[in-house]
Write a structure and sequence with these properties.
- The protein is mainly α and 289 residues long.
- It is 68% helix and 0% strand.
- The chain has 13 helices and no strands.
- The protein has helices at residues 3-14, 42-50, 52-84, 88-99, 106-117, 123-130, 145-170, 174-182, 187-212, 219-225, 234-237, 240-249, 254-282.
Length: 289
Amino acid sequence: MCLPAILFFIVFAYLPMPGLYLAFVKYNYTDGIFNSPFVGFDNFRFLVMTGDLWRLTFNTVAYNLAFILLGNVLQIVVAVFLNELRLKWFKKVSQTLMFLPHFISAVLIGLIAYNVLSYDYGLLNSILTSLGVDPVKTYSNGSIWPFIIVLTYLWQSTGYGSIVYFAAIMGLDNEIIEAAEIDGANAFQRIRYIVLPWLKPTFIILLLFSLGGILRGNFGLFFNLVGANNTALYATTDIIETYVFRALMTNFNFSIGSAVSLYQSVFGFVVVLTANWLVKKFSPDNSLF
C-alpha cells in the first residue's frame, strides 16, 4: 500500500535533486545545467542585495502563519459545533455546504473577485457609485489585499479542514462524555475539559506538517486573485511562488528561480526541525520523531 507514495516521492522529490545545481550557475540554453558557468552564491547574493528575498520571505511567512493559525482555530470551532448539533439532517447539510468551497477552482474565485472588485465594472463600485460614494481602486491599493486573501483562503479551506478534527472527535469515547453529563458538566465545560484536550495531538501534528510548507505559498490563489505582474501590489501580495513564476516565465531567469526555490526548501526544513524540537521538549508524546 505504501509503494505508490514511495514511487511518487522518488520520481518527483529525489530524482530531480541534481537540478539544484542550477541555483549555483549562470544558466544558458547552449551549455545546459552542468556546463553553464559556475557562480557559487552569486544568485543568492543578488536576491539579498535587491531586498527581494526579505520581502518575499516576510510576505510568504506572514500569509502562511495567518492561514495556519486562523485556519486551524476555525476548523476546530466548526468541528466542535458540528459535533454539538443534534439534528442529523441539519449536520449533514451543514457539512456539505461548508465542504463545497474546497472544490471551487481558484480561477473561478479570481473571476468572482474581479467582478466584485473591478474599478470600472465591479459590483462593489457600482453599489458605491449608486450611493454617491467615490469608487475604490482595489487593484492599486495594496493595504487591503492581505485581508481579502486571508478571508478568501479561510472561506475555501475551513469546511474541508474541519473534517480531520471532526473525525478525531468521533474517536472520543462516548462514555467519557456521558460521565461528564452525569456529573453536571454543561456543553461548554465538556468542550473545554474533554473535547479540546482530545484534539491537542491532532492539532500539533497538523501544525508541524503545515510548518514544513510555511514558505510554500498558495500560488493558484494568489495568481488568480492578484495576478503575477501587478507591480502596485508587490509590497503586500508578492510571495515566493509568484516571484519564481515571473523569473521563469517572464524574465527566463532559471538560476534565480532555482535559488529562491532552494532557499524555500532549506528554510522549511529548518522550521520543521525547530518546531519538532520544541514540541518534543514540552510534549514528547506529540512530536513527529
